[in-house]
Specification:
Shape: elongated
Strand order of the largest sheet: 3-1-2-4-5
Number of helices: 4
Distance between the termini: 23 Å
Structural class: alpha+beta
């Protein structure tokens, strides 16, 4: 019997969407306000989903305290209250769109979580805009 479990977290971060190989005009036309040279910020809502078999001994799919600690250590400590463009290695050369942030978080956590669990990341950049990534 397989079940999904979810951990919700929150972090704040600033970023600027910009392609350095484009002109300022093209960046402004494509990214609009998100291309502000002084950056802008979001209150991100992060949902980490693990899908797997229920352990008959614990009744857990995954120990949520362990999942919470992994997210805090490897994601929140790295990205919370940071300028993603300037303060992180992950986005020094990668445009920090919601899509790219979700993929980066998935890659970070995939290394830490046993492959027998399916992993999906849902990231809300705003109340109405969100992305999901499951490794495919």
């Amino acid at each position: 019997m397989k079940v999904s479990v979810f951990r919700k977290e929150h972090f704040n971060a600033a970023h600027r969407l910009n392609n350095p190989s484009w002109s300022e005009e093209k960046n402004q036309a494509i990214f609009g306000k998100c291309n502000n040279p002084s950056f802008h910020g979001h209150n991100y809502e992060l949902f980490v989903e693990l899908f797997g078999e229920i352990d008959p001994d614990t009744g857990y799919v995954y120990d949520m305290k362990i999942l919470s600690d992994l997210i805090k250590e490897h994601v929140l400590n790295k990205f919370d209250h940071k300028n993603l463009n300037l303060d992180t290695d992950e986005f020094s050369k990668l445009n920090p769109t919601a899509e790219n942030i979700a993929v980066v978080i998935w890659n970070i956590l995939r290394e830490k979580i046993d492959r027998r669990f399916e992993l999906k990341i849902r990231l809300y950049e705003t109340e109405r805009n969100f992305v999901e990534y499951n490794g495919n």
